[in-house]
Amino acid sequence: MKLLLKNTRTLTENGEFEACDVLIVENMVQTISSFIEIEDVDRIIDCQERLLVPGFIDVHIHLREPGGEHKETIKTGTKAAARGGFTTVCAMPNTNPVPDKLETVQQLLERIKNDALVRVLPYAAITKGLKGEELTNIDQLSKLDIFGFTDDGVGIQAADAMYRAMQLAAQNGKAIVAHCEDNSIVYGGVVHDGAVSKRLDLPGIPSLSESVQIARDVLLAEATGCHYHVCHVSTKESVRVIRDAKKAGIKVTAEVTPHHLLLSEDAIEQDDANFKMNPPLRSKEDQDALLEGLLEGTIDFIATDHAPHSSDEKAQGMLHAPFGIVGLETAFPLLYTYLVKQNKITLKQLVDWLTIKPASIFGLPYGKLAANVVADLTLIDVEREMNIDKHTFYSKGKNTPFHNWNVTGVPVLTICDGEIVYEEDFHV
Predict the structure, then answer these.
(1) In 3D, which of 180, 312, 275, 188 has the Cα closest to residue 234?
(2) Is residue 151 annotated as involved in ligand binding?
(3) Is 278 annotated as a binding residue?
(4) Mean pLDDT across the stretch 102-126?
Protein backbone atom coordinates (compact mmCIF):
# COMPACT_ATOMS: atom_id res chain seq x y z
CA MET A 1 0.00 0.00 0.00
CA LYS A 2 1.11 3.53 -0.82
CA LEU A 3 -0.22 6.35 1.37
CA LEU A 4 0.58 10.00 0.77
CA LEU A 5 0.14 12.53 3.57
CA LYS A 6 -0.08 15.99 2.02
CA ASN A 7 0.26 19.37 3.72
CA THR A 8 1.51 18.26 7.12
CA ARG A 9 3.66 20.18 9.55
CA THR A 10 6.51 18.53 11.43
CA LEU A 11 8.75 19.75 14.23
CA THR A 12 12.38 20.59 13.50
CA GLU A 13 15.15 19.96 16.04
CA ASN A 14 14.73 23.60 17.08
CA GLY A 15 11.03 23.08 17.74
CA GLU A 16 9.93 25.08 14.70
CA PHE A 17 7.11 24.00 12.40
CA GLU A 18 8.11 22.83 8.93
CA ALA A 19 5.68 22.10 6.10
CA CYS A 20 6.12 18.82 4.26
CA ASP A 21 4.56 15.82 2.53
CA VAL A 22 5.18 12.24 3.62
CA LEU A 23 5.03 9.14 1.42
CA ILE A 24 4.48 5.78 3.12
CA VAL A 25 5.11 2.58 1.16
CA GLU A 26 4.04 -0.66 2.80
CA ASN A 27 5.07 -0.21 6.44
CA MET A 28 7.93 2.25 5.90
CA VAL A 29 8.28 6.00 5.50
CA GLN A 30 9.85 6.26 2.05
CA THR A 31 10.08 9.99 1.43
CA ILE A 32 9.72 13.23 3.39
CA SER A 33 9.82 16.31 1.19
CA SER A 34 8.44 19.82 0.94
CA PHE A 35 6.34 18.64 -2.00
CA ILE A 36 5.59 15.16 -3.29
CA GLU A 37 3.55 14.56 -6.43
CA ILE A 38 2.89 10.95 -7.37
CA GLU A 39 0.17 9.24 -9.38
CA ASP A 40 0.70 5.63 -8.35
CA VAL A 41 -0.70 5.90 -4.82
CA ASP A 42 -3.56 4.11 -3.04
CA ARG A 43 -4.70 7.05 -0.95
CA ILE A 44 -3.94 10.72 -0.46
CA ILE A 45 -4.84 12.43 2.83
CA ASP A 46 -4.88 16.22 2.98
CA CYS A 47 -3.62 16.88 6.52
CA GLN A 48 -4.53 20.57 6.34
CA GLU A 49 -1.36 21.75 8.09
CA ARG A 50 -1.92 19.59 11.15
CA LEU A 51 1.09 18.46 13.16
CA LEU A 52 2.68 15.11 12.27
CA VAL A 53 4.84 13.46 14.92
CA PRO A 54 6.21 9.97 15.56
CA GLY A 55 3.69 7.57 17.06
CA PHE A 56 3.68 7.81 20.85
CA ILE A 57 5.30 5.09 22.97
CA ASP A 58 3.97 4.12 26.41
CA VAL A 59 6.12 1.67 28.35
CA HIS A 60 3.60 1.31 31.20
CA ILE A 61 -0.01 0.27 30.62
CA HIS A 62 -2.40 -2.39 31.88
CA LEU A 63 -4.49 -4.33 29.36
CA ARG A 64 -5.97 -6.70 32.01
CA GLU A 65 -6.27 -9.62 29.58
CA PRO A 66 -6.22 -12.48 30.40
CA GLY A 67 -8.36 -12.68 33.53
CA GLY A 68 -9.60 -9.11 33.85
CA GLU A 69 -11.60 -8.70 30.67
CA HIS A 70 -14.41 -6.91 32.53
CA LYS A 71 -11.92 -4.06 33.05
CA GLU A 72 -10.17 -4.06 29.65
CA THR A 73 -9.14 -6.33 26.80
CA ILE A 74 -6.24 -6.27 24.40
CA LYS A 75 -8.66 -5.07 21.73
CA THR A 76 -10.32 -2.27 23.73
CA GLY A 77 -7.07 -1.15 25.31
CA THR A 78 -5.25 -0.89 22.01
CA LYS A 79 -8.22 0.91 20.44
CA ALA A 80 -7.88 3.45 23.25
CA ALA A 81 -4.14 3.63 22.61
CA ALA A 82 -4.66 4.29 18.91
CA ARG A 83 -7.18 7.03 19.67
CA GLY A 84 -4.65 8.64 21.99
CA GLY A 85 -1.94 8.59 19.33
CA PHE A 86 0.03 5.67 20.80
CA THR A 87 1.50 3.13 18.39
CA THR A 88 3.65 1.11 20.82
CA VAL A 89 2.52 0.13 24.31
CA CYS A 90 4.09 -2.16 26.89
CA ALA A 91 1.66 -4.30 28.87
CA MET A 92 2.20 -5.03 32.56
CA PRO A 93 2.00 -8.65 33.80
CA ASN A 94 -0.57 -8.38 36.62
CA THR A 95 -3.03 -10.61 34.79
CA ASN A 96 -4.51 -14.03 35.51
CA PRO A 97 -2.62 -16.14 34.70
CA VAL A 98 0.53 -14.13 35.22
CA PRO A 99 3.02 -14.29 32.29
CA ASP A 100 5.64 -15.95 34.48
CA LYS A 101 6.52 -19.04 32.46
CA LEU A 102 7.05 -20.09 28.88
CA GLU A 103 3.49 -21.30 28.22
CA THR A 104 1.67 -18.27 29.62
CA VAL A 105 3.93 -15.81 27.81
CA GLN A 106 3.49 -17.66 24.52
CA GLN A 107 -0.29 -17.68 24.99
CA LEU A 108 -0.23 -13.94 25.70
CA LEU A 109 1.84 -13.26 22.60
CA GLU A 110 -0.70 -15.20 20.53
CA ARG A 111 -3.58 -13.15 21.94
CA ILE A 112 -1.71 -9.96 21.14
CA LYS A 113 -1.02 -11.12 17.59
CA ASN A 114 -4.73 -11.83 17.05
CA ASP A 115 -6.35 -8.83 18.77
CA ALA A 116 -4.01 -5.84 19.10
CA LEU A 117 -4.58 -2.76 16.93
CA VAL A 118 -1.21 -1.25 17.82
CA ARG A 119 2.14 -2.78 18.72
CA VAL A 120 2.06 -4.42 22.16
CA LEU A 121 5.32 -5.41 23.83
CA PRO A 122 4.47 -7.42 26.96
CA TYR A 123 6.47 -7.67 30.15
CA ALA A 124 7.20 -10.94 31.90
CA ALA A 125 7.06 -11.19 35.67
CA ILE A 126 10.17 -11.06 37.85
CA THR A 127 8.74 -13.54 40.36
CA LYS A 128 6.28 -16.38 40.01
CA GLY A 129 2.72 -15.20 40.56
CA LEU A 130 4.05 -11.69 41.33
CA LYS A 131 4.53 -12.93 44.89
CA GLY A 132 8.03 -11.56 45.29
CA GLU A 133 9.48 -14.91 46.27
CA GLU A 134 10.62 -17.42 43.65
CA LEU A 135 12.22 -15.93 40.54
CA THR A 136 10.85 -16.76 37.12
CA ASN A 137 13.15 -18.41 34.58
CA ILE A 138 14.63 -15.12 33.38
CA ASP A 139 17.12 -16.85 31.08
CA GLN A 140 14.36 -18.76 29.28
CA LEU A 141 11.81 -15.92 29.14
CA SER A 142 14.40 -13.49 27.77
CA LYS A 143 14.50 -15.52 24.58
CA LEU A 144 10.84 -14.67 23.92
CA ASP A 145 9.52 -11.42 22.48
CA ILE A 146 9.15 -9.61 25.80
CA PHE A 147 9.98 -6.01 26.68
CA GLY A 148 11.49 -6.51 30.12
CA PHE A 149 10.80 -7.86 33.59
CA THR A 150 8.59 -6.34 36.27
CA ASP A 151 6.30 -7.20 39.17
CA ASP A 152 4.46 -3.91 38.66
CA GLY A 153 1.76 -3.30 41.24
CA VAL A 154 3.89 -4.66 44.05
CA GLY A 155 7.40 -3.83 45.12
CA ILE A 156 10.00 -6.59 45.43
CA GLN A 157 10.35 -6.72 49.21
CA ALA A 158 13.49 -8.87 49.55
CA ALA A 159 16.76 -7.33 48.48
CA ASP A 160 18.10 -10.80 47.69
CA ALA A 161 15.32 -11.45 45.15
CA MET A 162 15.90 -8.11 43.44
CA TYR A 163 19.67 -8.62 43.44
CA ARG A 164 19.45 -12.04 41.79
CA ALA A 165 16.84 -10.80 39.30
CA MET A 166 19.09 -7.92 38.29
CA GLN A 167 22.05 -10.24 37.82
CA LEU A 168 20.06 -12.47 35.48
CA ALA A 169 18.43 -9.59 33.61
CA ALA A 170 21.81 -7.93 33.05
CA GLN A 171 23.22 -11.17 31.64
CA ASN A 172 20.32 -11.32 29.17
CA GLY A 173 20.34 -7.64 28.21
CA LYS A 174 16.90 -6.99 29.70
CA ALA A 175 15.70 -4.21 31.98
CA ILE A 176 14.28 -4.60 35.45
CA VAL A 177 11.30 -2.25 35.70
CA ALA A 178 10.18 -1.56 39.25
CA HIS A 179 7.11 -0.44 41.10
CA CYS A 180 8.90 0.78 44.24
CA GLU A 181 7.03 0.33 47.48
CA ASP A 182 8.25 -0.93 50.85
CA ASN A 183 5.16 -2.67 52.24
CA SER A 184 6.41 -2.40 55.81
CA ILE A 185 5.80 1.36 55.78
CA VAL A 186 2.67 1.59 53.64
CA TYR A 187 0.41 1.18 56.69
CA GLY A 188 -2.69 0.29 54.71
CA GLY A 189 -2.73 3.73 53.09
CA VAL A 190 -5.03 4.74 50.25
CA VAL A 191 -3.93 8.36 49.66
CA HIS A 192 -0.76 10.36 50.33
CA ASP A 193 0.13 10.75 53.97
CA GLY A 194 -0.50 14.47 54.11
CA ALA A 195 -3.12 17.16 54.39
CA VAL A 196 -5.84 15.29 52.50
CA SER A 197 -5.47 12.06 54.46
CA LYS A 198 -6.01 14.07 57.62
CA ARG A 199 -8.92 16.11 56.23
CA LEU A 200 -10.76 13.04 54.90
CA ASP A 201 -9.64 10.79 57.78
CA LEU A 202 -8.11 8.25 55.41
CA PRO A 203 -4.96 6.19 56.03
CA GLY A 204 -1.96 7.74 54.29
CA ILE A 205 0.92 6.26 52.27
CA PRO A 206 4.21 7.88 53.32
CA SER A 207 6.54 9.16 50.60
CA LEU A 208 9.29 7.14 52.28
CA SER A 209 7.70 3.87 51.18
CA GLU A 210 8.71 4.69 47.59
CA SER A 211 12.03 6.45 47.99
CA VAL A 212 13.69 3.97 50.36
CA GLN A 213 13.16 1.11 47.92
CA ILE A 214 14.57 3.16 45.03
CA ALA A 215 17.61 3.93 47.19
CA ARG A 216 18.13 0.21 47.83
CA ASP A 217 17.62 -0.74 44.21
CA VAL A 218 20.00 1.78 42.64
CA LEU A 219 22.82 0.27 44.73
CA LEU A 220 21.82 -3.20 43.56
CA ALA A 221 21.78 -1.91 39.98
CA GLU A 222 25.26 -0.48 40.46
CA ALA A 223 26.51 -3.83 41.77
CA THR A 224 24.99 -5.83 38.90
CA GLY A 225 25.28 -3.44 35.95
CA CYS A 226 21.58 -3.93 35.28
CA HIS A 227 19.41 -1.36 33.51
CA TYR A 228 17.04 -0.42 36.31
CA HIS A 229 13.94 1.58 35.39
CA VAL A 230 11.74 3.23 38.02
CA CYS A 231 8.01 3.31 37.36
CA HIS A 232 5.74 6.32 38.08
CA VAL A 233 8.03 8.42 40.28
CA SER A 234 5.92 10.48 42.68
CA THR A 235 8.06 12.07 45.42
CA LYS A 236 10.72 14.73 45.67
CA GLU A 237 12.93 12.34 47.64
CA SER A 238 12.72 9.79 44.83
CA VAL A 239 13.82 12.43 42.34
CA ARG A 240 16.79 13.26 44.55
CA VAL A 241 17.84 9.62 44.87
CA ILE A 242 17.61 9.06 41.10
CA ARG A 243 19.51 12.27 40.41
CA ASP A 244 22.33 11.22 42.73
CA ALA A 245 22.41 7.71 41.23
CA LYS A 246 22.73 9.09 37.71
CA LYS A 247 25.57 11.36 38.84
CA ALA A 248 27.28 8.25 40.19
CA GLY A 249 27.05 6.62 36.76
CA ILE A 250 24.46 4.03 37.73
CA LYS A 251 22.30 2.78 34.84
CA VAL A 252 18.96 4.03 36.19
CA THR A 253 16.12 5.58 34.22
CA ALA A 254 12.71 6.81 35.33
CA GLU A 255 9.24 7.77 34.17
CA VAL A 256 6.52 10.09 35.45
CA THR A 257 2.79 9.99 34.70
CA PRO A 258 0.61 12.79 33.35
CA HIS A 259 -1.54 12.70 36.50
CA HIS A 260 1.41 13.18 38.83
CA LEU A 261 2.59 16.11 36.69
CA LEU A 262 -0.82 17.77 36.55
CA LEU A 263 -2.38 17.00 39.95
CA SER A 264 -1.41 17.09 43.60
CA GLU A 265 -3.31 15.81 46.63
CA ASP A 266 -5.04 19.20 46.75
CA ALA A 267 -7.21 18.07 43.82
CA ILE A 268 -8.92 15.50 46.06
CA GLU A 269 -11.94 17.33 47.46
CA GLN A 270 -13.90 14.32 48.70
CA ASP A 271 -13.83 10.54 48.96
CA ASP A 272 -13.71 9.92 45.20
CA ALA A 273 -11.85 6.77 44.09
CA ASN A 274 -11.27 8.24 40.63
CA PHE A 275 -8.43 10.04 42.43
CA LYS A 276 -7.08 6.82 43.93
CA MET A 277 -3.91 5.60 42.28
CA ASN A 278 -0.66 3.99 43.41
CA PRO A 279 1.56 5.83 43.98
CA PRO A 280 -0.93 8.42 45.20
CA LEU A 281 -1.14 12.07 44.29
CA ARG A 282 1.45 13.70 46.52
CA SER A 283 1.99 17.23 47.81
CA LYS A 284 2.31 20.32 45.63
CA GLU A 285 6.02 20.35 46.53
CA ASP A 286 6.36 16.81 45.16
CA GLN A 287 4.45 17.76 42.01
CA ASP A 288 6.80 20.67 41.37
CA ALA A 289 9.84 18.43 41.94
CA LEU A 290 8.58 15.95 39.33
CA LEU A 291 8.35 18.62 36.63
CA GLU A 292 11.77 19.95 37.60
CA GLY A 293 13.17 16.42 37.47
CA LEU A 294 11.70 15.89 34.01
CA LEU A 295 13.05 19.18 32.69
CA GLU A 296 16.56 18.53 34.00
CA GLY A 297 16.68 14.95 32.71
CA THR A 298 16.61 13.12 36.04
CA ILE A 299 13.24 11.73 34.93
CA ASP A 300 13.61 10.50 31.37
CA PHE A 301 10.12 10.44 29.88
CA ILE A 302 6.36 10.20 30.42
CA ALA A 303 4.27 7.01 30.71
CA THR A 304 0.56 6.86 31.49
CA ASP A 305 0.18 3.84 33.82
CA HIS A 306 -3.20 3.33 32.11
CA ALA A 307 -5.06 1.23 34.70
CA PRO A 308 -8.71 0.54 33.85
CA HIS A 309 -11.25 -0.71 36.38
CA SER A 310 -15.01 -1.24 36.24
CA SER A 311 -17.36 1.48 37.46
CA ASP A 312 -18.68 -0.81 40.20
CA GLU A 313 -15.17 -1.38 41.52
CA LYS A 314 -14.39 2.32 41.58
CA ALA A 315 -17.74 3.15 43.24
CA GLN A 316 -16.58 1.49 46.47
CA GLY A 317 -14.80 4.59 47.74
CA MET A 318 -11.18 5.23 48.64
CA LEU A 319 -10.91 2.53 51.29
CA HIS A 320 -12.10 -0.38 49.16
CA ALA A 321 -11.75 0.57 45.47
CA PRO A 322 -8.71 -0.66 43.53
CA PHE A 323 -5.85 1.72 42.72
CA GLY A 324 -5.55 3.16 39.21
CA ILE A 325 -6.90 5.51 36.55
CA VAL A 326 -7.05 5.38 32.75
CA GLY A 327 -4.79 7.62 30.70
CA LEU A 328 -4.19 6.59 27.10
CA GLU A 329 -6.92 8.72 25.52
CA THR A 330 -6.25 11.88 27.52
CA ALA A 331 -2.47 12.04 27.93
CA PHE A 332 -1.46 14.27 25.03
CA PRO A 333 -4.36 16.77 25.18
CA LEU A 334 -3.92 17.22 28.95
CA LEU A 335 -0.16 17.68 28.79
CA TYR A 336 -0.36 19.97 25.77
CA THR A 337 -3.07 22.13 27.34
CA TYR A 338 -1.78 22.42 30.88
CA LEU A 339 1.98 22.29 30.38
CA VAL A 340 2.83 23.38 26.81
CA LYS A 341 0.20 26.10 26.47
CA GLN A 342 1.06 27.42 29.92
CA ASN A 343 4.72 27.67 28.87
CA LYS A 344 5.99 25.19 31.45
CA ILE A 345 7.46 22.93 28.75
CA THR A 346 7.84 23.15 24.98
CA LEU A 347 5.92 21.16 22.40
CA LYS A 348 9.21 19.62 21.22
CA GLN A 349 9.99 18.45 24.75
CA LEU A 350 6.55 16.88 25.13
CA VAL A 351 6.79 15.03 21.83
CA ASP A 352 10.30 13.80 22.65
CA TRP A 353 9.19 12.51 26.09
CA LEU A 354 6.44 10.52 24.38
CA THR A 355 8.52 9.20 21.47
CA ILE A 356 12.27 9.27 20.96
CA LYS A 357 13.23 9.30 24.65
CA PRO A 358 11.55 5.99 25.63
CA ALA A 359 12.60 4.47 22.30
CA SER A 360 16.26 5.35 22.72
CA ILE A 361 16.44 4.28 26.36
CA PHE A 362 14.98 0.85 25.62
CA GLY A 363 16.62 0.39 22.23
CA LEU A 364 13.40 0.42 20.20
CA PRO A 365 13.53 1.17 16.45
CA TYR A 366 10.53 3.49 16.75
CA GLY A 367 9.82 7.01 17.92
CA LYS A 368 11.27 8.68 14.83
CA LEU A 369 9.87 10.56 11.86
CA ALA A 370 12.40 10.04 9.08
CA ALA A 371 12.83 8.31 5.76
CA ASN A 372 13.51 4.57 5.84
CA VAL A 373 12.03 3.99 9.30
CA VAL A 374 8.87 2.16 10.32
CA ALA A 375 5.76 4.24 9.62
CA ASP A 376 4.46 4.85 13.14
CA LEU A 377 2.90 8.31 12.94
CA THR A 378 0.38 10.46 14.78
CA LEU A 379 -1.39 13.48 13.31
CA ILE A 380 -2.48 16.09 15.85
CA ASP A 381 -4.89 19.00 15.53
CA VAL A 382 -3.24 21.40 17.96
CA GLU A 383 -6.10 23.88 17.57
CA ARG A 384 -8.92 21.42 18.26
CA GLU A 385 -10.75 22.02 21.52
CA MET A 386 -12.41 19.15 23.35
CA ASN A 387 -14.23 18.47 26.58
CA ILE A 388 -13.02 15.19 28.07
CA ASP A 389 -16.05 12.90 28.35
CA LYS A 390 -15.32 9.56 29.96
CA HIS A 391 -18.51 8.12 28.49
CA THR A 392 -16.98 8.36 25.00
CA PHE A 393 -13.76 6.49 25.88
CA TYR A 394 -12.83 3.52 23.74
CA SER A 395 -11.33 1.98 26.88
CA LYS A 396 -13.67 -0.07 29.02
CA GLY A 397 -12.34 1.91 31.97
CA LYS A 398 -14.06 5.22 32.69
CA ASN A 399 -12.07 5.83 35.88
CA THR A 400 -10.53 9.24 35.32
CA PRO A 401 -10.19 12.35 37.50
CA PHE A 402 -10.15 14.46 34.33
CA HIS A 403 -13.81 14.06 33.33
CA ASN A 404 -15.19 17.37 32.01
CA TRP A 405 -11.78 19.02 31.74
CA ASN A 406 -11.44 21.27 28.69
CA VAL A 407 -8.39 20.55 26.55
CA THR A 408 -6.79 21.56 23.27
CA GLY A 409 -4.67 19.43 20.96
CA VAL A 410 -6.30 16.22 19.78
CA PRO A 411 -4.82 13.26 17.85
CA VAL A 412 -6.93 12.78 14.71
CA LEU A 413 -5.01 10.12 12.76
CA THR A 414 -2.81 7.28 13.99
CA ILE A 415 -0.72 5.07 11.72
CA CYS A 416 0.98 1.97 13.12
CA ASP A 417 3.37 -0.09 11.00
CA GLY A 418 2.02 1.65 7.89
CA GLU A 419 -1.64 0.90 8.65
CA ILE A 420 -4.25 3.47 9.68
CA VAL A 421 -5.47 2.30 13.11
CA TYR A 422 -7.42 5.42 14.09
CA GLU A 423 -8.93 8.16 11.96
CA GLU A 424 -11.24 11.05 12.70
CA ASP A 425 -13.16 12.83 9.99
CA PHE A 426 -11.30 16.11 10.36
CA HIS A 427 -12.04 17.36 6.84
CA VAL A 428 -14.85 19.64 7.90
Answers:
(1) 180
(2) no
(3) yes
(4) 98
> So what CATH class is 55-361?
alpha beta
Q: Alpha-carbon distance 342 to 247, whole Å?
A: 31
Burial zone of 222 (CB within 10 Å; 0-12 exposed, 13-18 middle, 19+ buried): middle
Cis peptide bond prior to 66, omega within 30° of 0: yes
Of the pLDDT bands very low, low, confident and very high (cuts 50, 70, 90), residue 425 is confident
Which residues belong to CATH 3.20.20.140 in the chain?
55-361
Residue 18, number of CB atoms within 10 A of its CB: 12
Q: What is the pLDDT at residue 428?
A: 46
Range(s) for CATH 2.30.40.10 in the chain?
A: 2-52+374-423
**Residue 291: CB atoms within 10 Å:** 18
- The end-to-end CA distance of the chain, in Å, is 26
Q: Which DSSP helix (H) or strand (E) runs through 5?
A: strand 2-11
3-state helix, strand, coil in the chain (%, to 5): 30, 25, 45
Ligand-binding annotation for 427, yes or no, is no
Looking at domain 2-52+374-423, its CATH class is: mainly beta
Interhelix angle 102-115/74-83, rounded to 10 degrees, is: 50
Residue 391 marked in a binding site: no
Q: Report CA torsion sign: 146, 54, 347, 421.
A: negative
Residues 130-154: tens digit of each pLDDT: 999 999 999 999 999 999 999 988 9
CA distance to 250, 329, 331, 401, per residue, from 335 (Å): 30, 12, 6, 14
pLDDT-derived band of residue 83, with 50, 70 and 90 as boundaries? very high
**Residues 368, 328, 88, 38: is their CA dihedral positive or negative?**
negative
Q: What is the pLDDT of residues 384-417, one digit of tens each?
A: 999 999 999 999 999 999 999 999 999 999 999 9
Name the amino acid, one letter, at 107: Q
- Active site members: 305
**Quick one: which H or E segment has residue 72?**
none
- Give 264's contacts (C-beta < 8 A, 6+ positions apart): 281, 282, 283, 284, 286, 287
